[in-house]
Amino acid sequence: MKPLSIARVNLVRFFRTRSAVFSVFLLPMLIVLLLGAMQGGASNPKLGYVSAGEDTFTLELFAILDGVDGFEVLEIEDEASAIRQVERGGLRAAVIVPAGFESTLRSGGDVEIGLVTRAEQEVQGIGDVVNAAITRQSILLRTARFATQKGAGTFDEALAVGEVAQETLPPVSVVATMAGEPFVLAGLGRFDIYAQGMLILFIFLTTLNGASHLIQARQLGVTRRMYSTPTPVRTMLAGEALSRFSIAIIQGGFIFIGTSLIFGVDWGSPIGATLTIIAFALVSTSGAMLLGALVSNDQQAGGISTALGLGLAALGGCMFPLAVLEMLSDTVYRVAHVTPHAWALEALQALVTEDAGVADIAGFLLILVGYAVVLGLLATWRLRKVLVR
Amino acid sequence: MGAAWTIARKDLKQRLRDRSAYIVGIVAPLGLALVFGFVLNPLSDFEFNATYAVADLDGGPVSRLFVDTVLANAEGIKVIEVASTDEAEALVDTEVSPLGGAGDTETADAAIIFPIGFSDDVQSERPVTIQVIGNQGSETNAGIAVALVEGYASELTSVRVAVATVENLVQEEVDRLAMGVEVLQTPNPVTLRDDTASTKQLDGVTFYAAGMAIFFLFFTVQSGITGILEERRTGTLARLLSSPITRSSVLAGKLLSSFVIGLVSMTVLFVATTYAVDADWGPPAGVALLILAAIVSALGLVSLLAGFARSAEQAAATGSMVGMVLGFLGGTFFDVSQAGGLLASLRFASPHGWFMQGLADLRSDDLGVVVAPVLAMVAFGVVTGAIGVARLRKGLRP
Amino acid sequence: MSAPAGGPVLECSGIRKSFGDHAAVKGIGFSIAPGETYGLLGPNGAGKTTTISIIAGLLEADEGSVTLGGEAMNPDATHTKRLVGLVPQDLAIYPDLGATENLEFFGRLHGMKGPELRRRVAEVLEIIELTDRAGDRTEKYSGGMKRRLNIGVGLLHRPALLILDEPTVGVDPQSRNAILDSIERLGEQGMAVLYTTHYMEEAERLCHRIGIVDQGELIAEGSQADLVRLVGHRDRLKLTATGSLAATAAALGDLAAVDDAAVADDGITLIVDRAHDHLPEILAVAGRTGSLVKTVDVDSADLESVFLKLTGRALRE
How far is it, in rounded angstroms, from Cα A252 to Cα A203? Predict the structure, then answer.
């Protein structure tokens, strides 16, 4: 079983290096952790609330804003901090309530509430929300103002009467219900989304980086030496391919199990996930073999494999969930599906969000196998010519 | 120092002939920046966009006021008027994207329904209800719809309360409609002031252009300094050491060549991304200072790694690991500044983090913001570099 | 640029160097006069490379002193290094640069520049016969060409002392001869040369004086004639043979006529009193102890026999 022995030797050599252990095991986990901690997925825009005092009106306004669906309201200590966060994009906008909100109004003065936004961002929606909240709060104030203007009574008189009126009058109420489907990613935990993307990214990247090993072997004349023994080229190729594939499976398997155990990531049907990993590992292997055949300098290969690995991952939706890409732009979504990554992600996503079974993702798996076969054929053809040069 | 310069020139000559230098230094980061920029461009043009379905079953002045004035004057809102509640519901009960992106079927983010007799009921102090059905798939836009309607309801309540109050106070009947209009025209004592903040965040394209540039910088500068280990391998180090030059000048030459390579690479990327994908790095003076500081930090780190490595290969492998970790921590791949808490602070442990934040802050056009990042990066480079160079010098043997 | 006339070009004494527990050089000292070619002859691992690394200023000796042209030599003595031209055993040339570029680079490090540098480079290229291929990257050169360039770089700045460390290892016979010829010429032109090798024939051909080194010590020194006299009028017998060489050598060493016998790289080397008289006996012993002798070479004593006599081991094992 020559290919197996070749593969075993390669694996041993590979995992002896510190950098291999790091990039296969540590790094992916680190990144999933990082990303998850950043709250993956679509999150609601954040609105900052800065108040100089804690009078009733200020608290009331906060409560109203807090009750609006689809926004997250955060109390911010001071104006400077809020402005900085808006500048840096941490907050979509900030509401600045001045001191003496209540007292100024009670004494008949006007109050200006600041809404801090960035010039280039259209934040009309937020403005409306804040305006609506203010309107709701200032019903009595307006009443008192108006009554005073009309000469119907004093401010305090009007306030008192108005309060009674507000209580006794039947309300103009708003009944809000929800329909439709929640955003497709809403059901996913914050680690789930990125775990999928990172799984695919790392399988591909790690395997592709292995191509430089094949090139080194060529450079060192090792393969030529192997060829001078009664080892047909076929066997050597098989051995190399098996090496790449094993590493891919180990990488994929580790992330799969690791994220399930450590981060509680849900992958859906285990068989489905495993098959997807295997199919994608095949694609990565073929890709690595092809790269090893096309490039003759192993230092170049390092740069190329990293760039390709990261680039295809980005295009394919590993870093920004496919669902997000889909809504953003048709073009981007379509281009993503040129990469095998997108197809693998579709399968993984379906397994979780749609509770899909193997039969459901069979189509995606077939496409992946198709990629593997095409790339593999190209690689074999080229390698035969080049391997013993 | 002439010897240092001679050595640097020789290194650069060799580097120019090495294709992998171009790939790592220019092609890879540029390519990735382009890819990321392409993928992200749609995301960076954030505009508020919502579609609301309105079923005005009443048709009276009060409901019309909302539709024709409030909704019509709101920017970014598209109104679809339908004849029945069912039609409105149909438009909302769909799958839709929160950002209101492209879709084939018409969908609405929310439906607003005014019942029959709405206007009359409002004027006659009877209870009224406005119904809003939000689309779960666009929580934010739906929330805005609810807020708008509630705002209008509050206006109506204001009118009712004000009118009732005046009536009560003056103890006579009033022309409700006319007074209602007057109330509406009374300005709210609480107003909203628009404060525009400057921008201290890089747009998507620039973010990735800069992120990829500095990420790959740490790989690009390796070749010069780890070149010392390479010279040992090729045997030429012996010759260098037997030449009438000091050991320091050997090291200085290597550092110098790394510096030049880093500078060329960053400059090329700066120019290329600015013209190719409209990246906006910021005012050239500030950018130049940040780039120079970044190069110093990279040189320091690579020296440190080379000082403790046994071979060029090992130095490269360790360098990759460290480069990756620092890159991710520093937010060159994802904007960690939004993460909050520990992560956002951790990014300042990495020179990459300082670089990215420096560029982001530079958007506000205030050159002074680069002082802290430049100092931090230079300090990082000097400390690591001092240790690394000392070790390299000690170990400078054929 | 040569040393002031009248003193030795190189003077080193009491050099000691250890790497951890291993003592590589244990008190070596010798001197080289202007125009003299001095050989350091010894097997691999004798400490030759370490010694010349110290002389060339690459390493610091633990003890002892090195003086070149009257100036002290150590790793920091950049001024003294201009007097040395080093030709290391491992090729010390840049594979991705051409011969001219290599020469110009190292020339500049020696302070040469401009038209003077260019002229000298052209001169050296002529000497090492690489003028035609000077523009090609050296990675494309044959092994012999690379070695010649390696030497050329050492000569470029006209050093007072040229140090060559095993310059012909792994080189084809033709290139080897060319190299030896050029070194002979350099010697004739008055350059002092320090030459290390484990090939006896080279030492015999090139060197005025030879120092025999073994296990970090200089065990004998002198002209070839001087050294051979140490062996007396004994013959050197070389057998190429296969089989149980160790057993055979031991058995032969027991014979009365045989002074010393040791296993060499492809056979057995012996010092014998009147070899021709004792040949039949020797061959018989060989056959009895399980060795098959293929060729027999009788010669008068040479440096290999000197080494064998002094150390009981062959120069090339």
Answer: 6
